[in-house]
Design a protein that fits this description.
Number of helices: 10
CATH topology: Rossmann fold
CATH architecture: 3-Layer(aba) Sandwich
Distance between the termini: 51 Å
Number of strands: 9
Largest sheet: 9 strands, mixed
Strand content: 15-25%
Radius of gyration: 19 Å
CATH class: Alpha Beta
Number of domains: 1
Helix content: 25-40%
């Protein structure tokens, strides 16, 4: 059974998904790293990939109604802006090592790899590329949604056929914009279902999206409604010290702050109670500069344990009571 899973719409280079342009969607599995070495990935058809992934999730322990926090996950990871093939593969491999391996593994993580231009100078063009790439992710989410509905129907007749996996998602930086547009498209295709969650836990890390996304009068209000209705809980991890998103806000000139830099525009959002945010500035010491903070959430600074507990579904008030939402690195102690 595969250890690593990849869905990519990068163009192929020597038969591997290492290109910098958008191509057709391809499917890959691997059992060994380093994952930034293309030779370590094996191609699969969609049906082969789907069949293998279903078999892997069927091997999860049976979920216990009274212990949902320990139910295994099928997690989709969407990388961010300025991540070429090498960077995206390394980020995914590290995330698998930290959260999806060993005795404390959350389950299985699948990388959705889209061709970010990988250049700070290409920010605006990359945003348009992200929008285009969201179409392919929408197709994947629609397939997943249909599969989950089938499992729900089967479980209604036979509890032993219930889905063993919780579906969750981690999106970083502009990957949140890819996901936002994909979720909106999927929601529209499925006739805007209410109270039929696709994603249990969504972690929006340093999200390069509008911070009023969940407000009814926002420019992207439809997208925000899609995220809110297809997700049981969305958690935005942000920091006002994030210099990358400071640059992003300056480039937009639309007067809307970035969710990953300023947090939610309204707390709690005026029309939904399943979106909240955590200011992670205190997790990063002074030695982590503003540019580095944008990716430091995946480092050694205490935010990964927070991500784990969020994904497990621990109540936000419990997380706050346990002081898991507050670091002790910044400002530096006297």
């Amino acid at each position: 059974m595969a250890k690593y899973w990849l869905v990519s719409n990068r163009t192929l280079v020597n038969g591997k998904p290492c290109g910098t342009d958008r191509g057709t969607v391809t499917y890959w599995t691997s059992n060994k790293g380093p994952l930034d070495k293309a030779k370590n990935w094996t191609s699969a058809t969609f049906e082969e990939f789907k069949k293998s992934l279903i078999a892997a999730t069927n091997a999860f322990p049976d979920p216990q109604p009274a212990d949902s926090e320990n139910q295994s996950h099928l997690t989709l990871f969407v990388h961010g802006y300025n991540n070429g093939w090498d960077d995206a593969a390394r980020r995914y491999e590290r995330l698998c090592r930290d959260l999806f391996s060993g005795t404390d593994s959350l389950g299985i993580c699948v990388s959705y790899d889209w061709p970010s231009l990988g250049s700070a100078a290409g920010y605006l063009a990359d945003r348009e590329n992200a929008r285009a790439c969201s179409t392919d992710l929408a197709n994947l989410l629609s397939e997943l949604y249909d599969w989950l509905l089938q499992k729900q129907a089967a479980a209604a007749e036979d509890a032993s056929k219930a889905c063993k996996a919780k579906v969750s998602c981690i999106a970083h930086s502009m990957g949140n914009y890819v996901l936002q547009k994909a979720m909106a498209a999927a929601w529209s295709r499925k006739n805007q279902p209410l109270l039929a969650s696709l994603v249990n836990q969504l972690v929006m890390v340093a999200a390069d999206v509008d911070n009023d996304l969940f407000e009814p009068d926002a420019d992207d209000a439809f997208d925000g409604a899609a995220l809110a209705n297809l997700t049981y809980r969305a958690t935005a991890l942000y920091s006002g010290r994030d210099a990358v998103l400071g640059m992003a806000a300056g480039l937009k000139h639309f007067g809307t702050r970035r969710l990953g830099r300023s947090g939610l525009a309204v707390r709690p959002p005026s029309k939904t109670d399943n979106a909240w945010d955590v200011d992670c500035s205190s997790f990063f010491p002074d030695s982590v500069t503003g540019m580095k903070i944008h990716s430091a959430y995946f480092g050694k600074y205490g935010t990964l344990p927070l991500m784990r507990e969020i994904l497990r579904g621990i109540d936000r008030k419990v997380l706050e009571k346990l002081k898991l939402t507050q670091g002790d690195q910044w400002p530096a102690p006297d």
